[in-house]
Amino acid sequence: MKRWYANKMIWAFSVVLVGMALLSAVRIMEAKSLSERRPASKRPVKVKTAVVARGSIEHWVSGEGTARAVRREFLTFENQGRVVFLGEEEDGTTLREGSPVKGPDEGEALGQLIARVDSRDQLQTLKVYEAEMAQATQGVQAAEAQVEQARVELELRESNFKRAQELYRQGAYALSRFESEKSACYSARSALQGAKARLKSSRSRISAVKAQVQRTRLAIEKTSIFAPFDGVITRMNIRVGDYASLNPLNTHDEATLFSTAAVVVVDPTAFEVTLDLPLYYGAMVKEGQAARVRFSGMALPGESATENVSGRVYSVTPAVTPGKRTIRVRIRTDKDSQMLIDGSYVMGRVAVEKRADAILVPRDSLLFENSRPYLFVVNPETKRVTRQSVVMGIQEGEETEIVEGLSEGALVVTQGKYRLVDGAAVEIVYDGRELSRNE
Question: Which of 352, 341, 353, 347 is nearest to 316 (CA)?
Answer without folding.
Answer: 352
